[in-house]
Structure formats: structure tokens, C-alpha cells
User: Fold DUF4145 domain-containing protein from candidate division WWE3 bacterium RIFOXYA2_FULL_46_9.
Amino acid sequence: MVLNLFKLFSFGSGWGRSSVSSASEARIRDDWKKINAAIASKSPAQLRQALIMADRSLDAALKDISDGESMGERLKSAENRFDRYLYSNIWGAHKIRNNLVHEAGFEPPHFILTENITVFKEALRALGVII
Assistant:
């Protein structure tokens, strides 16, 4: 009973797992090898792709620990897993990703892409994922 109350108050609804599965962590680490290679290339197209992959890797982790049909819903469900500043930055990074995917001609500067990739990395670390 006490453990269930702890889960309820610590992790939202209590229905999600408390940590990311080892299978998801392995896929996320593989994605981050590609993301790091894209960052090293400094190619604008590769950086855009790296941001999209970083967003996808966070979503994979969120699927393991929170409820929701979309990344936005899962992120809202997992809000208490992040400090307020990081949570706000994750939303900003996710919005950049959405603009990349849905707006033709959206070309953010290099530093915006790399900063937001770092936000996704910090979010994964906050969830206990070792990259």
C-alpha cells in the first residue's frame, strides 16, 4: 500500500513503469551513435536529422514510462520526471522538431539544432538512460 502511494505521488498515475526497459535503452544508444556522427559532420541536413532522431529517442523512453497516444501526451504525463527548466526546454526542442517536420523551408541555425539535441540528451539522462 505504501509503495503504491509512493508510485502515485512520485510518478503521476502510477501506471507507467519507473524506468526505461533495457531493450529501449539499447535502441536509444544505437540511435545516439548515429546522432553523434551527424553532429560531428556539421552538415545542416545531418543536424536536422539528428534532432529528429534525438526527439524520437526521447519518445521511445517516454513510451516505456508514461501514458499517452502521442509524444506530447506522454511528455505531459511524465512532467514530474523533469525539473521545470528542463521540462520547458524539452517542449521547446520538441516544437523545433515539429517545425522541421511540418514546415517546408524551416531552417534553424546550427546552434539552435545542437542546443536542442543537447536538451534531448539531458532529458534522457534525467530518465536514467545511459547514452
